[in-house]
Structures are given as structure tokens and as C-alpha cells.
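Here is one chain, start to finish.
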Amino acid sequence: MKPTEDLKQEHKAIKTMLGIMTRIADDIRNGKEFDVKDIENIVYFLRVFADKCHHGKEENVLFPALIASGMPAENGPVSVMLHEHTLGRGYIKEMSDGVENWKNHQVTADKLIATAMTNYVTLLQNHIMKEENVLFMMADRMLAAAGQAEIAQRFEQIEEEVVGHGVHEEFHQLLDELLIKYPE
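Its structure:
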């Protein structure tokens, strides 16, 4: 499998989570009760699956390979993606802060959570669209087959050594549980 196909597979799981987040944010805005543990699990998923694993593969392996193959490091797709990763981390922190504020009974914490979730969803939906329709197509053209095989191997190392054995499966189980609770 090409490295970009691996990343697209991860996008499917991330997009599922974005849908769940949209429904929870809408529920919060409509004054419905929410389970703060679900928000904590979402933050954990975003920090580990979306950021540490998925963005880690891009930032530590794919983007350097693209730059080495001639893609500009500045003022190009890579710098845009890196900037958006940073913005996403900020929204994840806002969600986490909102959870802590909620636990401390701050009355506007739910609004902070909903806003941060909505901002993250909007950012990531656009980010994924750019990756799949521009960056990944460029990567497939720029990277030789041997280079792609090495990248794929390094992706597997990240999953095992950085994220941990079996963690992907745990996240897919979490998605299944949240889909039952927050159906499409």
C-alpha cells in the first residue's frame, strides 16, 4: 500500500470522529446533557491517533521526503499543512481546557468545548480535503516506488514504537462505541 493510501485510511477514522464531534457540539449548543468522559476520550483520540500518529507520520516522514524530493519547505503545501497542524493542536488544548473548566463548574465551559470542537472540525475537514486532493497526489508523483516503500515501513514503525501495539484497534473500538451513542 502506498503511504498516501495509509494516510487516507486514517482520514476515514478521523472523519468519523469529526462527525461525532459535530453532533456533540450541536447537542451542547442546544442545551442537551453531554458526557464529559466522551469529550476526554475524543481529546485522547485527537492527541494520539490524529496528532501523534497521523500528523507524526506526515511531519517526521512524508514531509521531509517531499522536501528532499524538491518540494519547497516554505511557502508551499508543506508549510500550510504544518501551520494547520499547529492550529489543530490549539483547538485540542481548548477542548481539554474546557473539560477542566467544566469539572470546576465554570458555567461557560460547555460553550468553550462546543466552539473548540466546531473550529477543529472545520479546520480538519478543509485540511483533509487539501491533503487528499492536492498534497497526496503530488506525493504519489514525486516519490519513487523505493522511497514510498521506505516511507511505508517507517509509518509502521511509528504505529508500533511511538503509538503502541494494538492502539489503532482500541481507537476503532472507541469510534464504534461513540457511533452507537451519537449515531449519524
